[in-house]
Amino acid sequence: MADNDAPIRATDNDAAIARLSAVQKGYLVDPYIATLVPRAHLQQPRPPLINIGTYLRSRGIDDLLDAWFRLAGGRKVQIVSLGAGSDTRFWRLASGTHAEQLHKYIELDFAENTSRKAMSIRKSKVLSAALGSPDAVSVGGGGTTLRSPVYNLLPVDLRTPPVVSLEPLLASGDEPLLSPSLPTLLLFECVLAYMAPSASNALVQWFVDYFGSPGSSGLLGAVVYEMFKLGDAFGRVMLNNLKSRGVSLPGAEAYPDIASLSRRFLDLGFTAAQALTLREIRSRYVGPQELRRLSRLEMLDEVEELELVLDHYCHFVGRSDVWGLVTKDQVG
Ligand code: SAM
User: How many CB atoms lie within 10 A of CB 159?
Assistant: First the structure.
């Protein structure tokens, strides 16, 4: 039987290889990513344009998460990463200044990807060490699920109705895995486009309802990194490039312009939203010293193409209820 989802799952490889390339070239610091990239792809440098895009993508999300921790005050927080792939953010947070504030970090992806990641984690002393005592770590579901006191990796097809797919977030002994009473951030890094808008709407709505119900924290935030404007000439080139690799993007038309991302979350019950292109983030929030450092890392010939690419990706931040919207000086 044809596996139509294989090209979608494989986009995770692209993301991980791009990240490793940006690390090897000195754009980013990430001691964990090499452990999660298959050995055959360890030496696949990406062009400067991709390295810069990866830097802005990663840096923007890191800064938004940092702001989220600060806005939560001294409270413990939960992060749910949807379509997490080989992301290393949990390990970077666990070794950073917000480690103590992290109550749960839950990653969801297709079973094939979670089992690959669970295996890599178990094989790596460094990745395993961050999960705590080995006695408190368990692998289940035929190797597709990994649970530990903070970090949890679960196999989920996010297109399945959330009442079914997100059930594991509720059931875990006496307490739900995802507490309704703690500030919680949803992270959608390059995943919404792979899902039909009806499916991702249902997903976001599930979280809005869960955290908006009486007795819950009422504190739900979202950080999204997404392609948009795929209907224009350059967007169509990006779309065709993905299509030629068998990747379909049923969610792509949901974001004809940057405002559509905010509109969509506001329609789903978010109370505030803001989106910025990577180009805006680079020009407004990356300081001159850092820009100089980046410009010395590699020669960039395709300046116009870079600006076009950066114009088609954006970071979005939104809150439901009382989470204060991230302000300019808290980003970048
Ligand atoms: N978020 C990671 C990052 O940015 O490094 C990975 C991004 S990768 C482009 C997209 C990820 O979303 C893949 O790991 C893919 O398997 C996952 N994904 C896409 N559709 C999904 C679905 N319906 N259910 C679960 N995971 C999905």
Answer: 17
Distance between CA atoms of 330 and 332, rounded to whole angstroms? 7
Q: Which two tokens stand for residue 39?
A: 């050995």
Query: What distance in Å separates the CA atoms of residue 34 and residue 49, rounded to the nearest whole number?
Result: 21
Closest residue by CA, ligand 1 atom 15: 9
pLDDT single digits (tens) 303-313? 899 999 999 99
Is 83 assigned a ligand-binding role in the annotation? Answer: yes
Query: Could you tell me which of 153, 147, 87 has the C-alpha nearest to residue 114?
Result: 153
ipTM given for this complex: 0.99
Ligand 1 binding pocket includes 118 (Cβ within 6 Å): no
Give the C-alpha separation, 159 to 164, whole Å: 10
Query: What are the domain boundaries of the chain?
Result: 6-330
Per the DSSP assignment, residues forming a β-bridge with 225 are: 189, 315
Fold of 6-330: Rossmann fold (3.40.50)
* Amino acid (one-letter) located at 228: F
Mutate-to-test residue for ligand 1 from 90, 110, 188, highest number of ligand atoms within 8 A of CB: 110
Distance (Å) from CA 16 to ligand 1 centroid: 11
Q: Is the CB of 168 under 6 A from ligand 1?
A: no
Would the pTM of this model clear 0.90, i.e. be above it? yes
